[in-house]
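Example: Amino acid-binding protein.
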Amino acid sequence: MHRKLLLRLIDAEYAITRLNIGSQIPEWLAGPGFWAAICSREELTLVCRAARVPSSVQSSLGWRCFRIEQHFAFDAPGVLSSVVSPLSSAGVGVFANSTFSTDYVFILGSDLDKALTALKASGHEIMV
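Written out as structure tokens, the predicted fold is:
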């Protein structure tokens, strides 16, 4: 099911970083804006505003973030797909994170114009 969503483009550049498994969560991670620590058996992935990440940390820089502004039931189907599908069709790669209440979709800043066009063409409203 395709939903028409209200998306907010967060006014900040984000970084997606990789630390070795078993690493401690660094003090610089927490701060203003969205941030997350995701641990898998292979690595510890951190997401936060790029300005906080030390240059010595393995990172992918230049990411922009869309936040889904509506709140849906935790198990509501199709919410994230409504954003990811038009981006994928436009050739825009994504890195998605979900919280209990909403979803955050990260795209490379170099794809921002293409992403905005695709999302608006799908009927989404973008707040900047």
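The mean pLDDT is 95.
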